[in-house]
Every structure is written in C-alpha cells, then in structure tokens.
Amino acid sequence: MSKKRICIVFAIIFIALFTLVNLFDNDKVMNIKYRIYTKESGWSSWCKNGTTCGNKKDKIKGIQINTSESNPIIYNYYTLDKEWDNSFTSNGNKTEDDDIYGIKMSLYHGTSKYYDICYRTYNNKNEWLEWNCTNEMISGNKDIPISAIEIKIIPDDVVKSDYLKNYNFSENESSIGF
Q1: What is the mean pLDDT of residues 167-172?
Q2: Is there a domain that residue 152 lies in?
Q3: What would the pLDDT profile of 15-67 be if each residue is shown by its tens digit?
Q4: Residues 74-132 pLDDT 10s
Q5: Is residue 66 part of a domain?
Q6: N or C, where is the chain less crowded by C-beta within 10 Å?
Q7: By residue range, what is the domain housing residue 19?
Q8: 146 lies in a domain?
Q9: Is residue 48 exposed (0-12), middle (13-18) or buried (19+ Cβ within 10 Å)?
C-alpha cells in the first residue's frame, strides 16, 4: 500500500472512532435549563447545565425548569407562609410574593434509573450550600431566603465530584439548612 492510502485509512479510522466516542458520550447527557424570578428583575435569562442563576443578593420568588426530556423533574418550594408548597413539574413555574427558602427536587418516569439531579442554593448567610445529588434532598436554610441556584443532571453511574468539580466550588460551602 502506498503512503497516501495508509494515511487515508488511518484518517477514516480516526474519524470513525471520534464519531463513536461522541455518540456514546451524547447518550449520557440530559440537558437542563432553568431561570429564576425576583421582584427586582423579573424573570432572569435561561441558565443551563450547572451554571449560576441569580445574582446572590435578590431573593428568589420563582423558578422555572425545563429539560431535554418530557417532565422528568418534580420539585417543591419552601416558603414561610406555606411551608412546603405543592409539587411542580418541568415546564411549570410559580411566582408569588413569597420568598423561597428551600427547594427539593427529584427525577421520575424512569429517568432516576440513569441520572441524578444535583443542585445547590446560595443564601447571604451560609453562601453556597453543598451539592445535593439525592432525590428529595433539601437545599436551603429555613431562616434565610435563597438568592442563587445551580442545577445539573448527571449520569447515575459516575463519580459525582468529577462532574461537579468545575462549578464554583468554594471554601465557604456549608451543609447548614433544614
């Protein structure tokens, strides 16, 4: 075989392997986007896949969540007046005069077999709370409203810290809350 043919064969093999690896990785991704509502700014721009949503000073009064799947998330807010409010599903939202002090989320409809939802909240006392990657785990503080949130959906069979390590970890993380 000539050098030209050998180069072509290697190029084809490289492209085929690259394509297969990308197909495998994309099967493990579930995208999530979310936005928050504050009295001061109204609805924020959409945040996605673990980025910070909220300015860390304005109290959150509503959250809207959408995923690349149909309704795999259910979530509840904690407010002082109503305590744990009704459940909301993806594509739902709620805006009220009540500040949100805590939130808990879970995956359902079979998605929880393959993915975990990881989320954490920020408040002006404890700053960033720890990442929660367990269904129905509460993030927040019953005494201080939340002012920012990060949400990420990751495969169930991976080391969580590998997927979360690039998202604003700080020395000030705390598990104080409910």
Answers
A1: 48
A2: yes
A3: 665 554 443 444 567 889 999 999 999 999 999 999 999 999 999 998 988 88
A4: 888 888 877 887 667 665 556 567 899 999 998 877 788 889 999 999 999 989 999 99
A5: yes
A6: N
A7: 1-29
A8: yes
A9: middle
8 Å CB contact between 120 and 160: no
SS3 156: coil
Sheet containing 115-123: which strands, arranged edge to edge?
Answer: 127-128, 115-123, 146-155
- Rounded to two decimals, the pTM is 0.76
Tokens for 49? Answer: 């896949």
Report yes or no: 103 and 121 within 8 Å, Cβ to Cβ. yes
| Angstrom distance (rounded) from CA 107 to CA 109 | 7
Q: How many domains does the chain have?
A: 2
Residues 77 and 57 in one domain: yes
CB 70 within 8 A of CB 64: no
* Positions of E strands within the chain: 32-38, 42-43, 47-48, 60-67, 73-79, 83-84, 88-89, 102-107, 115-123, 127-128, 138-140, 146-155
Q: Report which of 91, 57, 97 is spatially closest to residue 79, judged by C-alpha positions.
A: 97
Residue 37 lies in a domain: yes
3-class secondary-structure state, position 164:
helix
- For residues 75 and 140, membership in a common domain is answered with yes
